[in-house]
């Protein structure tokens, strides 16, 4: 399916999502609530003969410019080590100028520095590319080094993009003209209704209305995802961005019910199922048949493992066979277990509360394991159940006093999502 793109430009704008919707409302009404001289002289040309003077003119030979000095931050570098490489004996002054702008101990590997040298070889100026948008310009004037922080302007474009899955969501988004970040955003929005590890199939479709931000025509980042739809096996799920009761942006269906449910469909964002829940499975290490009360997800060592529901950690440690594992207690009698971890998530210990989607550990191969994977298990009232069979009850809709405003908003956004009204003529 060819991507359909409608665009709205706002030079240098990085406004919040609500401001864009309100501006679009004023400009478009309900349907766009979201959003050289040439000469032909033919006359003769007069020529003048110039006689050179008798005295030759002394011409100064210009001093050739020294080539720029360049370096990139390497793992383990500090501001001091970079300053020493760039400026030699004068490194202290440049270090002191840089530490006022940069963390002296933490520099992102790959950050580039480019300096211009004076005729005597000393560093005269320095340009530091912190990221795609931000640069530092440092210039020496006498004994003083002046620093200027430059933020490059950002163009904001509201675009509608749609595509059809042939092999994967990532490939479909790329073919439609989107970036990988949009595929991740869609997976996060629909993770309670679609298991992107096992549910996605050829012919599934997606549509999104999203704020795309660029610098000098190159992609910089995505802003707000205003609305999205994913059609999985013929069943459409719509998501409308709207502030929840705490003022945070959440996603709601057309009835005003939050898409967020008690349990995520999977503890890994992208992986594959290598073994399913079974009362009698041949154990590849013990070489005998025995129950397997979990679902195995194959993934590289270090892949983040997400806790699937809010709860409290009740166990962190090693157990025979399970290796490093974490157990979490949840509401309504549920308990989840995460086995064969390589390490635990930051701050994860018995007694702490965790929030759905928080990193609780990382995939490994500890315990009785033939390779890196996560063994994910769920108990309900003390009995093991198939994690793939969990069906969270529908969430309660927005309160009545907020529901009517949401429904009016959703009607306008759906016109954009359906392509009935392109997002044109308003700033986001």
Report on the architecture of this protein.
Helix content is 15%, strand content 36%. The chain is α+β, with helices and mostly antiparallel strands and 428 residues long. Among the domains are: 69-151, Nuclear Transport Factor 2, Chain: A (Roll), CATH 3.10.450; 272-389, Distorted Sandwich (Glucose Permease (Domain IIA)), CATH 2.70.70.10. The strands form 4 sheets. Strands 12, 15, 16, 17, 18, 19, 20, 21, 22 and 23 form a 10-stranded antiparallel β-sheet that branches. It has a 6-stranded antiparallel β-sheet with strand order 1-7-8-9-10-11, sandwiched between helices. The longest helix is centred in the last third of the chain and has 18 residues, at 400-417. The model is unreliable at 1-52 (pLDDT under 50).
Low-confidence stretches: 1-52
CATH architecture of the domain at 272-389: Distorted Sandwich
Tell me the major beta sheet: 10 strands, antiparallel
Derived structural class: alpha+beta
Percentage of residues in strands: 35-45%
Distinct helical segment count: 6
């Amino acid at each position: 399916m060819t991507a359909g793109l409608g665009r709205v430009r706002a030079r240098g704008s990085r406004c919040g999502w609500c401001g864009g919707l309100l501006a679009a409302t004023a400009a478009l009404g309900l349907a766009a609530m979201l959003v050289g001289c040439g000469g032909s002289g033919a006359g003769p040309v007069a020529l003048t003969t110039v006689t050179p003077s008798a005295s030759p003119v002394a011409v100064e030979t210009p001093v050739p410019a020294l080539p720029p000095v360049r370096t990139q931050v390497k793992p383990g570098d500090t501001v001091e080590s970079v300053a020493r490489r760039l400026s030699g004996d004068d490194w202290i002054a440049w270090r002191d100028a840089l530490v006022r702008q940069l963390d002296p101990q933490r520099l992102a590997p790959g950050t580039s520095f480019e300096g211009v040298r004076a005729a005597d070889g000393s560093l005269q100026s320095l340009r530091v590319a912190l990221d795609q948008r931000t640069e530092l310009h440092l210039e020496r004037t006498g004994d003083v080094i002046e620093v200027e922080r430059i933020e490059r302007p950002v163009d904001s474009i509201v675009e509608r993009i749609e595509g059809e899955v042939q092999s994967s969501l990532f490939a479909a988004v790329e073919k439609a003209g989107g970036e990988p970040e949009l595929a991740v955003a869609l997976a996060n929005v629909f993770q309670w209704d679609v298991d992107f590890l096992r549910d996605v199939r050829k012919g599934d479709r997606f549509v999104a209305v999203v704020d795309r931000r660029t610098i000098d025509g190159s992609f910089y980042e995505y802003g707000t995802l205003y609305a999205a739809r994913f059609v999985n096996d013929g069943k459409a799920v719509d998501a409308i961005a709207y502030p929840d009761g705490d003022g945070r942006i959440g996603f709601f269906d057309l009835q005003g019910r939050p898409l967020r449910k008690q349990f995520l469909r999977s503890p890994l964002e992208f992986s594959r199922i290598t073994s399913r829940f079974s009362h009698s499975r041949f154990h590849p290490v013990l070489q005998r048949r025995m129950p397997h009360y979990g679902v195995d997800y194959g993934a590289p060592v270090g892949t983040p493992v997400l806790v699937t529901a809010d709860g409290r950690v009740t166990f962190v440690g090693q157990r025979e066979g399970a290796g490093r594992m974490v157990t979490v207690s949840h509401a309504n009698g549920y308990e989840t277990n995460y086995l064969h971890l390589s390490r635990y998530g930051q701050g994860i210990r018995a007694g702490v509360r965790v929030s759905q989607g928080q990193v609780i550990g990382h995939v490994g191969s500890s315990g009785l394991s033939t390779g890196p994977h996560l063994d994910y298990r769920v108990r309900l009232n003390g009995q093991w159940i198939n994690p793939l069979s969990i069906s969270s009850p529908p969430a309660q809709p927005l309160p009545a006093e907020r529901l009517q405003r949401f429904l009016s908003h959703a009607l306008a956004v759906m016109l954009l999502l359906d392509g009935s009204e392109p997002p044109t003529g308003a700033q986001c």
